[in-house]
Amino acid sequence: MNSEKYYRLSIQAGLYGLSFFLAGGEDDIYRTLRFRAHHPVAVERYLKEILHTHRHLFDENTRAVLIHHHNWYTWVPEAYFDETRPGLYIRTTTPLLETDTLSFDRHSSAGRVNVYIPMVNLNNLMLDYFPEIEFYHSATLADRYAFQHFPDDRKRRLWVRSFDEGFQLGIWEGRKMLFFNSFPMETTEDFLYYFFFAWEKTGLKSGEQAEIMITGTKTGELTEALEGFAENIRTPAVEKELLTLV
Length: 246
Hints:
Layout: E1 8-14, E2 17-23, E3 29-34, H1 40-53, E4 63-69, E5 73-77, H2 87-90, E6 103-107, E7 112-116, H3 120-127, E8 134-137, H4 138-149, E9 156-162, E10 166-173, E11 176-184, H5 188-201, E12 211-216, H6 219-225, E13 233-234, H7 239-242
Parallel strand pairs: 1-4, 4-8, 9-12, 12-13
Antiparallel strand pairs: 1-2, 2-3, 5-7, 6-7, 9-10, 10-11
Helix pairs in contact: 1-3
């Protein structure tokens, strides 16, 4: 491989922006681009612009990973998952069209599967640049990070991944996932409503202490919103690391 080329390109793409990470050159490159799109077709235009702009930094030997970021997913215990019928699970949380393609990410170490609707047009665009690609869902990466970094104990840990359009909220007891979902958010009141909904849904009591991790674009705002309620809040910079987990 040409030494000037990067050996890995990871892109996370959604309706409200994308981030990309090029690794393996003299200096790694990490960039984010914010926008508001109403359909995956509009996202394709931004992704194509990114690929075209940085075309000189990768070639057909570069490992290409696309991470789909949206709310069209659901978690299934692996023991009950039938890969021939993925629509059976996601229909309970997401409206499906006859033309929708379904995919899934297995996390066998944790015993769960993430079923989701990939943005097929983005996959196809990536295949115009690379002979093959890998693709995953952003919630899968969050779960893998938690499994790798959270101790296998009985302690409750909550992770808020904030984005311009909303947030993902995961709750684990040790490495056991108790709750994971995505919520819209326009105000901090929206955040607090869904946060405490999930808190109570998983059996946490008012005043009970749990470790809380807040990351993403609205870390400061959401940390301030929880002041006075939670003391054990961490705000690590992990978003770039998440793009390297697969």
